[in-house]
Amino acid sequence: MPLQFSLQQQSFLPSEERTQIERAQQDPRYFAPLYERYHDAIFRYVYRRVDEEEQAYDITSSVFVKALQSLHKYEYRGLPFGAWLFRIAKSELYQSFRDQKAQRTVSIDKVVLKQVIDEWTEDYTEEDKARLLVALKDLKEQQLQLIEMRFFEKRSFKEIGDICGLSENNAKVKTFRAVLKLKEFFHQKE
Amino acid sequence: MFKILLDRKEPSMEAVRKHQNFQEILAAYNYQQKVNNPWRYWYYPVLTVCLLLLV
Questions:
Q1: CB nearest to B25's CB, from A2, A35, A48
Q2: Which tens digit of pLDDT belongs to each residue from B1-55?
Q3: DSSP type of residue B4
Q4: Which residue from B2, B10, B16 is facing A105, i.e. has the nearest CB?
Q5: Could you give the CA distance from residue A93 to residue A101 in angstroms, rounded to a whole number?
Q6: Which residues of chain B neighbour A32 with C-beta distances below 8 Å?
Q7: Which among B16, B20, B26 is the nearest to A28, CB-wise?
Q8: Which of A3, A67, A90, A84 is closest to A40 using CA atoms?
Q9: Contact between B29 and A24 (Cβ < 8 Å)
Q10: Residue of chain B nearest A111, judged by CA positions
């Protein structure tokens, strides 16, 4: 899989990270290790959702500038620091879409697309692929986000919940409903 | 409406690192802090008045 930025895959101890956050809150120059740890993940999250690479760089920059500006407000209350950054990224992305600076894009690997279709039909055809792509366009934005994170980016429900501001259980339920909706649209197109 | 891109090639980690670095982010943040500081317009006039009063 090209995407390897799961929040749960971070091997750093929260206490180490907490110390780094506290130091960065005193002096922004100490934000460097946190930047190094999360920059690639945030960039890829943004890149997969926008049309142009340059826009992805611009949005990623503004994510980190915003993070530095709001860092004094960050308090560890169970929400991982990475998820806090992803929330800023999400908000910056949607601001760009609203300002029409960036085009909303969904990046999908054909292999993943096939895996999704394989669960619903016996024989995968090119027609099924086209149908699924059309069905995706019928989803609401939040449903699309959930499908995108769960299936195309292979995130856990905990991560999805943290990024979307939902409980793990709620993320699971909403994703399940989104899948049902997608399946319904997929079969409607037959 | 969104656009679907299949099997899109992603830039390598090295390319991403080369393109952006923390110093640029820090510089942008410092600039923003300077611009957002409400005292920036008042600092020099107030300083001048204080100096004049002292003299």
A1: A35
A2: 789 999 999 999 999 988 999 999 999 999 998 888 777 778 888 889 999 999 8
A3: E
A4: B2
A5: 10
A6: 22
A7: B26
A8: A3
A9: no
A10: B7
Q: Which residue of B has its CA nearest to A57?
A: B20
Q: Inter-chain contact A57–B20, Cβ cutoff 8 Å?
A: yes
Nearest to A35, CA basis, from A60, A8, A3, A16: A60
List CB contacts (< 8 A) between A137 and chain B: 1-2, 4
Q: pLDDT in tens for each of the 190 residues of chain A?
A: 344 445 554 444 578 888 999 999 999 999 999 999 999 999 999 999 999 999 999 999 999 999 999 999 998 877 889 999 999 999 999 999 999 888 899 999 988 888 888 888 777 788 888 889 999 999 999 999 999 999 999 999 999 999 999 999 999 999 999 999 999 988 886 6
Q: What are phi and psi of A166, to 5 degrees?
A: -120, 160
Q: Which two tokens stand for residue A2?
A: 């090209």
Total CB pairs under 8 A between chain A and B: 77
Write out chain A residues lying below 8 Å of B24, CB-based. 61
Residue A27 token pair: 């002096």
Is the pTM higher than 0.90? The answer reads no
Judged by a CB distance cut-off of 8 A, whether residue A30 touches chain B is no
